[in-house]
Here is the input.
Amino acid sequence: MDINNYVSSGILELYVYGALPEDESTEVTRILKQYPEVKSEVEEIEKALIQLSAAVSPQNAEDLIKAIKQKLAHNPKVITMESKKSSNIPMYLGWAASLLFLIGLFLMFNKNQELRANLQALQVEKAQMETQIADARTDADKSKELLDVIRDKNIVKVPLAGQAVAPDAYATAYWDKSTNTTYIDVKDLPTPPRGMVYQVWSLQLEPLTPTSIGILDTYEEDENKIFALENTNPSEAFGITLEPAGGSKTPTMEQLYTLGVVSS
Amino acid sequence: MQQDKLIAELQSGNEKAFERIYELYSQSTYGIIYSIIKDTAVAEEVLQDVFIKIWNNAKSYNSDKGRFFTWVLNIARNASIDKIRSKDFKNKKLNLKSDNFVDILESKSNFFGKIDAIGLQKYIDGLGATCKSLIDLLFFKGFTQKETSEELKMPLGTVKTKNRVCIDKLRSKVLR
Here is the structure.
């Protein structure tokens, strides 16, 4: 699940207001317990709302606590019953029996609640395992596909070396001309700063003509950092630049991270 | 985590925890109640009732269903609405202005809690009319997303995203 999207959807604000139906609210609580960033977001929303409503209050509430505590102290909690003198054993027995019966019922009810809670916890756990397995399976499929690409002898491998702005950066392009696909492996590029993305360019050298073949805007989510891009250009070189989110029409050459020429 | 512990202590009847909860939430609860009741003395009475309810019913709060603050918020709104519908309140014939929280804030000179009062007044002033109604209905009046969408004739999804933008603005103003 894309947590950034979830946070910015506005559901958390409604959650704090109490404006969501109960089932949706319960779902938000579940996610909040799983993701600390969601929790801290909710806490910030709450803090802002607490400040806003406090600012609307007509006077200081501090002193009222005394009056409240006094009212609490006066609340009668124990009710005493007058006992009758005449002893009536059958009646007592009856009371005792019904009391025992009630205790029994209560215990059963408790046990039942406990079992139900356990069952629910197990179901949640099971669902989580299932997603984990499914995730692992897709990951494995993806890796296999990538391995096939790298092994294919029809594929041209182009190492892209780091340039002035990032001498240590390194990337590799795998160009499959038969399917017009270029795979870009950017594991050794630094994580782009906030609001910036990497953009991949196919270059023709004489005259120098850059053509964008893709923006790596899922850089952070993609674990293996390999991207498949469609490339129908007669590429003579590949370059990667850092651009503002959304990409640019032409490459910002001062932000050229890596560059490599296609041999052959 | 600390918050969870505090609430657990409140639920087990710890008076110190109750006092801390009061410190944390009384001023904002007072604001919510006042925004509905608009009479200081009656709002004070309701505030007391609300905290007595919090103490007596603490065990019925379930953290799976929502935030503790939201729970308190609901008790406060319900108690206030019950109050203004009650007979003795109607008999008081109070001179009620139909203010919302914006009017209250703008006419105020005394503020409580750690807040940059002038900054907030200015900010609220500059908040668009849509934001003002969204926050008023959803937060102060306790409307659901659906009710708000009907009241403002705004699509459900827009209520959600637009309100997010409003609260973002609020956060940048009050939290530093």
About this structure: The longest helix of chain B spans residues 15-37. Chain B has a mean pLDDT of 86. Chain B touches chain A through 62 residues (CB under 8 Å).
